[in-house]
Design a protein that fits this description.
By secondary structure, the chain is an alpha/beta fold. The protein folds into two domains: 2-57 and 94-245; 58-91, no CATH class. Helix content is 44%, strand content 11%. It has helices spanning 37-43, 60-70, 83-90, 93-102, 114-132, 149-155, 167-180, 188-196, 198-214, 226-232, and strands at residues 2-7, 16-21, 28-33, 49-53, 144-146. The chain has a five-stranded mixed β-sheet. The protein is globular.
C-alpha cells in the first residue's frame, strides 16, 4: 500500500509531495519540492490515499452570499451583522468540527490568505479527477482526502509551536516523530530536506494522515453533514495514536 501527501502552495515552487510505501518495514519515503499538478495527478491512481493540505471548497453560506451579491440580489444578513454572522460565512462545517475537536479555528478559506492556495487546489482536484476517471469526492470518500498537518501533529501529542518557521524546532520535532515511529525510514538527505523545508515536512505528515484515514483512524464525517462535505470538503483528523499506523 502506498499513501501520498501534498503540502499545497499557491504556486508550484512551494508545493511538496511525499509518497510512503507501507508494503514492508521500514516504511520508505520519497519526497520532493517544487512539484507540479501534473506530477501530483499522475501519482493519484497509484496510491491508496492522497492527503492534501488545503481546503477542498468554500463554505456554502459564503458561496450563496457571493452569488447573490454578484447577481445584484439582496444578500442575507443577520440583524446586527456581527461576529456570529461573519463566522457563518467564513467557516465551513468541517472548520467548526475541527475547532470542537482541537480547540482551534483553522484558517478561513473565505477570508484569510488560504484563499489563493484553495484556488490552486480547485484546479488540482479537477486534474486528479481526470486522472482517476471520476470527480474527486471532497468529503474524503475516494482517493483524495483533505488533511491538516499541524492539527494532525497536535492530535498525536506533538507540540507544534514555531515548527513552521524554525528549522531547529523542526529538527527536534522530526527526532520525536521518529522516536515514536521507528518504522519510518528517512535517509540523511530526507532528514535534511524536512528540516530545511516546512513544506516537505508537512507533505510527510499529510501522507501519514492519509494512512490514518485509509485505516479508518480519523474522525468520520457526521451523517448529517455528508452532502455538505461533498461540496465544502472535510478535514480528516486522527482519532488514534501515531503508533497505530505501523505496518
Amino acid at each position: 500500500m502506498l499513501t501520498a501527501g501534498v503540502d499545497l502552495a499557491a504556486e508550484t515552487k512551494g508545493t511538496a509531495l511525499a509518497v510512503l510505501d507501507w508494503s514492508a518495514v521500514p516504511v520508505t519515503v520519497d519526497v520532493g519540492l517544487g512539484v507540479t499538478d501534473t506530477e501530483i495527478a499522475a501519482v493519484a491512481p497509484t496510491v491508496g490515499k492522497l492527503g492534501i493540505d488545503c481546503a477542498f471548497g468554500w463554505p456554502d453560506d459564503f458561496v450563496s452570499f457571493v452569488t447573490r451579491h454578484s447577481s445584484c440580489q439582496r444578500v442575507e444578513a443577520s440583524g446586527d451583522q456581527g461576529l456570529a454572522w461573519r463566522r457563518r460565512l467564513s467557516y465551513r462545517a468541517t472548520d467548526r468540527a475541527t475547532r470542537e475537536i482541537t480547540g482551534r479555528w483553522p484558517l478561513s478559506v473565505a477570508t484569510d490568505r488560504l484563499g489563493l492556495t484553495a484556488m490552486h487546489c480547485a484546479v488540482l482536484l479537477d486534474e486528479i479527477g481526470d486522472a482517476l476517471g471520476a470527480p474527486v469526492d471532497r468529503s474524503g470518500g475516494g482517493t483524495a482526502v483533505e488533511v491538516y498537518p499541524s492539527a494532525t501533529l497536535r492530535g498525536w501529542g506533538f507540540g507544534t509551536r514555531g515548527y513552521k518557521n524554525d528549522a531547529g524546532i523542526r529538527a527536534a520535532l522530526l527526532e520525536s516523530l521518529q522516536d515514536r515511529a521507528p518504522w519510518l525510514r528517512l535517509t540523511s538527505a530526507d532528514r535534511a530536506l524536512l528540516v530545511s523545508s516546512d513544506d516537505t515536512f508537512d507533505a510527510v505528515i499529510a501522507a501519514l494522515a492519509a494512512r490514518a484515514h485509509a485505516l479508518g483512524l480519523t474522525h468520520p464525517v457526521p451523517a448529517g453533514f455528508r452532502e455538505q462535505a461533498r461540496r465544502e470538503g472535510w478535514i480528516a483528523l486522527p482519532m488514534a495514536p501515531l503508533e497505530d499506523l505501523a505496518p
